[in-house]
Design goal:
By secondary structure, this protein is of the alpha/beta class. The chain has helices at residues 13-23, 36-45, 62-71, 89-97, 110-126, 157-168, 176-184, 192-206; strands at 5-9, 29-33, 50-54, 80-84, 102-105, 132-134, 137-140, 145-148, 151-153, 173-175, 215-218, 222-225. The structure holds calcium ion (CA).
C-alpha cells in the first residue's frame, strides 16, 4: 500500500507546520492549501486519502467546502476531519451533518491528530468499494488501478476519474457540460474542449488493447461509455 496522502486546508501557517512535522515522520504524504480555492484545485488534481479541514478560512467556510465535496461524486468519499476552535455542540453537529467524518478541537496534540486520522482511514477502508469490471477492463476505486485482462493501464488522474464515471454510468449519453459537473465538479472553470482533450487521452490509454472504442462519441450531443458497438 502506498502512503496515505493527507491534504491540510488551513490558513494559519503555524498549524500547517505543526501538522507537517507530525504527519511526515508518521508515514503520511502531506499537501497543503491555505484557502478554499487552492484546496478545491488540489483535490481536482489528485484525490487525497483524507482532508484535514479548518472551519474558518478566508474565502469560504470549511463547512461549505465539505458540502461541496460531498455533493460531487468524484470527491464524496474523501474522509474529512474538521479542525475547529469551536467547541459548541451545535457546531459539532453542523460539521457532521455537512459530511465530515470527525472533528478535532484546537489546540490538539499530534498524538490525538494521528490517532484520529488512523481511525477515520480505517473506517473508510472498511467501506471499500468493489472493483468494476466490464469485459476484462477493470477499475479499482480503492487502489486507483486500471487493468485490462490483468495488465496495468496507465493514465492520468483526470482520465481515471472520467473512466470511473463512465464505468459506473454505462450506456448513457452525457454532454460535455454534464461530464464537467460530474468529473471535475464544477468548482473550477473548465472549457468544453478540455473534455475532448481528456477523452482523447483516455482513448489513447485504452487504445493498445482496442478498448478505446467503448468511449463513444455521440454526434451533436457528447459521449457515452458502452461495450456494445
Ligand atoms: Ca482558520
Amino acid at each position: 500500500m502506498s502512503k496515505p496522502n493527507i491534504l491540510i486546508v488551513e490558513d494559519e501557517p503555524a498549524i500547517r507546520e505543526m501538522v507537517a512535522m507530525a504527519l511526515t515522520p508518521a508515514g503520511f504524504v502531506l499537501s497543503e492549501a491555505c484557502n478554499a480555492k487552492d484546496a478545491l484545485n488540489l483535490v481536482s488534481d489528485n484525490i487525497p486519502s483524507l482532508i484535514l479541514l479548518d472551519w474558518m478560512l478566508p474565502d469560504m467556510s470549511g463547512l461549505d467546502i465539505a458540502r461541496r465535496l460531498k455533493r460531487n461524486e468524484s470527491t464524496q468519499d474523501i474522509p474529512i476531519i474538521m479542525l475547529t476552535a469551536r467547541v459548541d455542540e451545535n457546531d459539532k453537529i453542523r460539521g457532521l451533518e455537512a459530511g465530515s467524518d470527525d472533528y478535532i478541537t484546537k489546540p490538539f496534540s499530534t498524538r490525538e491528530l494521528i490517532a484520529r486520522i488512523n481511525a477515520v482511514l480505517r473506517r473508510s477502508n472498511n467501506t471499500l468499494k468493489q472493483a468494476i469490471n466490464i469485459d476484462g477492463l477493470e477499475l479499482n476505486p480503492n487502489t486507483h488501478r486500471v487493468t485490462i485482462d490483468n495488465e496495468a493501464v496507465t493514465m492520468g488522474p483526470t482520465e481515471f476519474r472520467l473512466l470511473r464515471f463512465f464505468m459506473t454510468h454505462p450506456e448513457r449519453v452525457y454532454t460535455r457540460n454534464q461530464l464537467i459537473d460530474h468529473v471535475w465538479g464544477g468548482n473550477v472553470y473548465i472549457d468544453e474542449r478540455t473534455v475532448d482533450v481528456h477523452i482523447r487521452r483516455l482513448r489513447k490509454a485504452l487504445n493498445p488493447q482496442d478498448f478505446s472504442k467503448m468511449v463513444q462519441t455521440v454526434r451533436g450531443t457528447g459521449y457515452r461509455f458502452s461495450n456494445k458497438v
